[in-house]
């Protein structure tokens, strides 16, 4: 019997890809797939369980979906993903709203789980997290011009603050053949911007029997009919000279590099179990800028790791002032149980860590203002994402702006500009951190 199954995806784009795989499996089995849980037979909530804020968001969603069940507007709730993998016992004991659980190694069991739920069972499937199947069909949910290509699953880096290897398993690359087959389908469907993702894309291929590399994969992807190829996330110590050459020389690969460094102080980096020093980071950024003068570097930082005193924090601020990284995401350290950092001495008071986050955000906003001001008067290629009636103009993104992360360009045009079209926009102003401009004819 076909059921109406609603999917809700929380957390990162990598999680979204898993949700899209589950949606495709359910549709292939004859079920109806929707994004609205109201009136559905089953809601599948694909959760994140990475840090405290993500866990709270997932729990809030479980409770809200439980209210829908009480109101008779939803029959069953299947909780999937990282929260299920990390806290199955707690969910059983404290969240009776959940009727079944699906671990990160069991996405492909979604149809079986849905059918078990509707038969009155309470399914809990937790397969091997090191052996997930990653080459299945997807029901792509992003706008038709943009899609993700997840090239690997899991992570083997073992950073002291991170729980992901315990939730997602060891690093495992997908085969070149499977990736190119999927990418060809995406290109044929009209995707213009391909976003290459994994927990760490720089180590792609090193674990495969037929050793390959991200650089080699990018050369093949560039042969396909994409306009932009965007990269998330590159670990600094694994960025090779060959990779820099490919990014610099292939016109389709954007000079936007998401390189999570987390900190710059050598002592903090060592405590984090990161594999680089401040001097190495500075040398890498210099090499990237020499090869690509227009490169936009995005990074992630953690404030408040155990052992971070005022001197270490001031060093981080000084580093940001010197490097002027255009895009920075700042997070407060979250002592996640099961990680090395949670058990470290010299824990930083949460209020102090929160204050440091605010200070870095303020500092970084000034750096971003400077970057935006430098764009004034220039003409930039913009991917149009449609007309925003609230703003009264079109919106889009430049190569320097990734989906749902960075800023926008608000621009006017004499005629109609379809979403997914690339246009040249003369930048004439800045509005609340976004660029403004007009189409250059």
Question: Brief description of this entry?
Answer:
With 441 residues, the chain is α/β, with parallel strands linked by helices.
Tell me what you see in this structure.
The chain is globular, with a radius of gyration of 22 Å. Helices cover 34% and strands 24% of the residues. Strands 2-1-3-4-5-6 form a 6-stranded parallel sheet, with helices on both faces. A 6-stranded parallel sheet has the order 7-10-11-12-13-14, sandwiched between helices. A 5-stranded mixed beta barrel has the order 15-16-17-19-18. Helix 8 packs parallel to helix 9 and helix 12 runs parallel beside helix 13. It contains 13 helices and 19 strands. The chain is of the alpha/beta class and 441 residues long.
N-to-C span: 55 Å
Main β-sheet, spatial strand arrangement = 2-1-3-4-5-6
* Largest beta-sheet details: 6 strands, parallel
What's the pLDDT, averaged over the residues? 96
Strand percentage lies at 15-25%
The count of DSSP E runs of length 2 or more, i.e. the number of strands, is: 19
Secondary structure: elements and pairs:
Layout: E1 4-9, H1 13-28, E2 32-34, E3 40-47, H2 52-70, E4 74-81, H3 82-86, H4 88-94, E5 100-102, H5 110-118, E6 124-125, E7 146-150, E8 152-153, H6 164-168, E9 172-173, H7 176-188, E10 193-197, H8 214-221, E11 228-232, H9 241-249, E12 253-258, H10 266-271, H11 278-291, E13 296-303, H12 310-323, E14 327-332, H13 350-375, E15 379-388, E16 393-397, E17 409-412, E18 422-431, E19 434-439
Parallel strand pairs: 1-2, 1-3, 3-4, 4-5, 5-6, 7-10, 10-11, 11-12, 12-13, 13-14, 17-19
Antiparallel strand pairs: 8-9, 15-16, 15-18, 16-17, 18-19
Helix pairs in contact: 8-9, 12-13
């Amino acid at each position: 019997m076909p059921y109406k199954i609603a999917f809700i995806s929380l957390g990162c784009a990598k999680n979204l890809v898993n949700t899209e795989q589950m949606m495709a499996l359910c549709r292939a089995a004859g079920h109806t797939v929707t994004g609205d849980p109201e009136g559905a037979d089953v809601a599948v909530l694909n959760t994140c369980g990475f840090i405290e804020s993500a866990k709270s968001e997932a729990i809030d969603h479980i409770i809200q979906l439980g209210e829908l069940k009480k109101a008779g507007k939803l029959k069953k709730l299947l909780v999937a993903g990282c929260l299920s993998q990390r806290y199955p016992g707690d969910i059983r004991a404290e969240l009776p709203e959940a009727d079944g659980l699906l671990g990160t190694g069991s996405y492909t069991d979604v149809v079986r789980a849905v059918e078990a739920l509707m038969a009155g069972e309470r399914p809990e499937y937790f397969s091997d997290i090191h052996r997930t199947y990653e080459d299945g069909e997807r029901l792509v949910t992003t706008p038709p011009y943009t899609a993700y290509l997840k090239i690997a699953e899991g992570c083997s880096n073992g950073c002291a603050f991170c729980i992901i290897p315990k939730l997602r398993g060891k690093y495992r690359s997908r085969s070149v053949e499977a990736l190119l087959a999927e990418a060809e389908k995406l290109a044929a469907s009209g995707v213009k911007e391909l976003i290459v993702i994994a927990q760490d894309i720089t180590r792609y291929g090193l674990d495969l029997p037929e050793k390959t590399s991200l650089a080699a994969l990018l050369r093949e992807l560039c042969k396909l009919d994409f306009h932009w190829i965007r990269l998330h996330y590159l670990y600094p110590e694994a960025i090779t000279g060959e990779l820099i050459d490919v990014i610099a020389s292939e016109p389709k690969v954007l000079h936007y590099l998401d390189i999570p460094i987390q900190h710059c102080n050598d002592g903090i980096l060592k405590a984090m179990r990161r594999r680089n020093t401040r001097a190495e980071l500075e040398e890498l950024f210099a090499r990237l800028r020499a090869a690509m003068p227009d490169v936009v570097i995005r990074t992630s930082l953690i404030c408040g790791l155990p052992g971070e005193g005022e001197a270490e924090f001031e060093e981080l601020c000084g580093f940001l002032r010197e490097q002027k990284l255009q895009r920075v995401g700042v997070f407060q350290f979250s002592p996640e149980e099961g990680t090395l950092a949670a058990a470290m001495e010299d824990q930083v008071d949460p209020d102090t860590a929160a204050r440091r986050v605010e200070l870095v955000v303020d500092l970084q906003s000034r750096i971003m203002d400077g970057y935006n001001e430098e764009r004034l008067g220039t003409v930039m290629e913009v991917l149009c994402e449609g007309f925003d009636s609230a703003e009264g103009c079109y919106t889009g993104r430049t190569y320097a702006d990734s989906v749902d992360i960075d800023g926008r360009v608000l621009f006017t045009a004499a005629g109609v500009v379809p979403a997914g079209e690339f246009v040249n926009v003369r930048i004439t102003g800045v509005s609340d951190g976004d660029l403004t401009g007009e189409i250059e004819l």
